[in-house]
Design brief:
The protein is mostly helical. The chain is 66% helix and 3% strand. It has eleven helices and two strands, in the order αααααββαααααα. Strands 1-2 form a two-stranded antiparallel sheet. The N and C termini lie far apart (63 Å).
Length: 271
């Protein structure tokens, strides 16, 4: 029978499968910045569609299947059409007019903007879901401290915050079960949402206080005796694979911009 260490190794291999396996967490953060920033400089459907298409193509290669991507970002497919509808109704008029009533005007320009905004919301958010999945908080803290030389208190807070985010779903479920066991029921979804959110906030504040006290008691963030430098249990470095991935990501991030400029669809902050 396999022992516990073999199970852990197998789980780690599954978590890191794909093109981004064993890369430094800072590489993922760099790809987030490079991939998304060009999309914020224009409002056109060509660059958004190209970026979204490349995201869907590379997601399985990065270890995130389309089904997993849909489960992780299902709410984005609800938010994106809402953003598009608001632009459709209240976007800057231009071209042929199809409908008009009070402040609502539907024209060729507003339709194009609605499509562009809908695609752009998905093109900006879905890469974050792909790149942020399976980032190990401990490896992230090591990279922030050793490579970027950030203050220890900031790094500790970032690591603790990332770890606590993974408990959000379970906390929500346990809080709902506790209220149900006590016979507390809310009338209406809005009231239930407000009550649960307040309870979750109280729980987060209590956990944050306990975590801060525990970390302070263990000496996190303190200077070692004698003013020496702390040693690291795990070395964090940027390997040649990281540099190649960052270079490839930068080149791929330029593809939507080039496609938009070539097709004369680039609209620099233009609405």
């Amino acid at each position: 029978m396999p022992n516990t260490s073999e199970y852990l190794v197998a789980a780690q291999d599954t978590r890191q499968a794909g093109l981004l396996s064993s890369v430094n967490p800072l590489t993922r953060i760099f790809l987030m910045f490079v991939w998304v920033t060009p999309l914020l400089l224009s409002v056109d459907w060509v660059s958004a569609a190209a970026s979204l298409g490349m995201t869907l193509f590379f997601a399985p290669l990065c270890g995130v299947s389309w089904l997993r991507l849909l489960k992780a970002g299902w709410f984005l497919f609800l938010i994106a059409p809402i953003s598009g509808i608001s632009m459709l109704l209240y976007g800057t008029p231009g071209g042929r007019e199809y409908a008009s009533w009070w402040l609502i005007t539907v024209t060729d320009n507003s339709i194009e903007l609605a499509i562009a905004i809908t695609l752009r919301v998905l093109a900006v958010a879905l890469p974050m879901v792909v790149l942020a999945r399976d980032i190990d908080p401990t490896e992230l803290g090591d990279a922030l401290s050793q490579i970027l030389k950030l203050p220890s208190r900031f790094v500790i807070g970032a690591v603790a915050g990332v770890r606590m985010m993974t408990l959000f779903k379970s906390d929500w479920q346990y809080l709902a079960m506790a209220r149900r066991a006590r016979g507390l029921t809310d009338e209406g979804r809005i009231k239930h949402l407000i009550t649960m959110s307040f309870g979750l906030l109280v729980l987060a504040l209590r956990r944050g206080g306990k975590l801060a006290t525990a970390m302070e008691a263990r000496g996190f963030g303190r200077t070692p005796p004698g003013g020496g430098q702390r040693t690291w249990a795990r070395e964090s470095c940027v390997s040649s694979k990281d540099w190649l991935i960052m270079l490839a990501g930068s080149l791929l991030a330029a593809v939507p911009v080039v496609a938009s400029v070539v097709t004369d669809s680039w609209r620099f902050f233009g609405l």
